[in-house]
Write a structure and sequence with these properties.
Blueprint (H helix, E strand, L loop, with lengths): L1 H14 L4 H21 L9 H20 L8 H17 L16
Helix pairs in contact: 2-3, 3-4
């Protein structure tokens, strides 16, 4: 896992300066991935429920939506349709809609 982390860090550094919108999108993806890992990895449970499940799913949706939106700068391709479809599913199942760059911070489950 350390090798993957180092590779990701090197990739981000190699990108150099990006537009504020691109930086926001990348930050959103990484923050949501981090939040997802904090929720799911240390607390391996058989079946998540309630708010714990909703937070994990929201992070997963946000990462996926953000990745699809970053495929290219156009707004009419398959990648954009997939992002829109995921956003609709997110709204349907979680009652939340919004950009993949929106972050969800994990909260302590109790």
């Amino acid at each position: 896992m350390l090798e993957s982390q180092e590779e990701l860090n090197a990739c981000i550094e190699a990108l150099g300066p990006q537009s504020p919108a691109t930086q926001l999108e990348i930050d959103g993806i990484l923050n949501n991935l981090s939040a997802f890992l904090k929720i799911c990895v240390p607390n391996q449970v058989r079946e998540r429920k309630g708010e714990d499940l909703a937070r994990a799913l929201e992070c997963a949706f946000n990462v996926s939506i953000g990745l699809f939106r970053m495929v290219d700068s156009g707004e009419t391709g398959l990648d954009d349709q997939l992002a829109q479809d995921l956003d609709k599913l997110k709204l349907r199942y979680l009652g939340k809609s919004g950009s993949g760059s929106r972050t969800t911070e994990p909260q302590a489950s109790g």
